[in-house]
Structures are given as C-alpha cells and as structure tokens.
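From the thread on structure requests for the teaching lab: each student submitted one protein with a one-line request. Submission from student K.M.:

"Model YdcH family protein from Bosea minatitlanensis, tokens only."
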Amino acid sequence: MSLQTRLIELERKHRQLEDAIAQAVASPSSSDLTVAELKRKKLLLKDEIERVRLTMPEPTLH
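Reply posted by the TA:
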C-alpha cells in the first residue's frame, strides 16, 4: 500500500470517528466512557496521519 493510499484510508477513518462522536454526543443513551474512547481513537488516528505525512516525500515543482 502506498503512503498516499494509507493517508487517504486514515483520513477516511478519522472522518468516520468524527461522525461517530457526534452521534454519541447527541444520543442520551451513550456514556461518557464511550465518547472518551472514541475521542482517544480519533487522537491516535490523528497522530498516525501526521506520522505518515512526515514520511511522505515533499512534492517538487517543475
């Protein structure tokens, strides 16, 4: 899997977690623990996205 493909997949998962967090916050039946776990996963994904971005080569201008 290329770095670009990996980055796209991580960003997709990050957006899905944002949606899941919004739904959990809006739902009266979800617990604070559930929301906290989703936020933790989102932060881990954000860290992974940054690591991938740092390993990608800089685009060159021709």
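TA comment: The longest helix spans residues 3-26. The CA atoms of residues 33 and 39 lie 10 Å apart.
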